[in-house]
Amino acid sequence: MTSIHQSLGYWVSLISRSMEAEFSRRLAPHGLTRMSYAVLGAMVFDKQSTPSDVADFLGLDRGAASRLLDKLEVQGLIRRDRDRSDRRSVSIRVTSRGETLAHEMQVQSRVVNDMFTAALTPDQAAEFIEMAKAMVARSEARPNSL
């Protein structure tokens, strides 16, 4: 019988959970979760400008995206604007506070990535990413969202 410590899945899962925990620890003082940051980042860095665009981009159902947007709006990080000619149409935009926070947390994301890849050479880190991409490409069962 092989030890779990010899399982690739165990180590990939441990890396993932450890990185998520570290990043979550850095987000928490700002009132953000990984998912709320993902929504904010989709708006700031990927220019997603409607609730449905955000949901589709992140692979979320519309209800989950709407709840995350609600929280960001209450925090003053985004604003929703209804189209005057079509009340069903809503655009979302990031406030200056939200823009600043997204950039600050992007720096923290890089710090976490650097912390976990410090033991690797740049070539090893790039190779690891390529191997991970190849492994995911072979999978038939992928999660729909982050």
TrEMBL record:
Matches recorded under InterPro entries: HTH_MarR-typ, MarR/SlyA-like, Tscrpt_reg_MarR-type_CS, WH-like_DNA-bd_sf, WH_DNA-bd_sf
Domain of life: Bacteria
Positions of the HTH marR-type domain: 5-137
Name assigned to this protein: MarR family winged helix-turn-helix transcriptional regulator
Pfam families: MarR_2
Keywords: DNA-binding, Transcription, Transcription regulation
Keyword Transcription regulation annotated: yes
Lineage, opening ranks: Bacteria, Pseudomonadati, Pseudomonadota, Alphaproteobacteria, Rhodobacterales
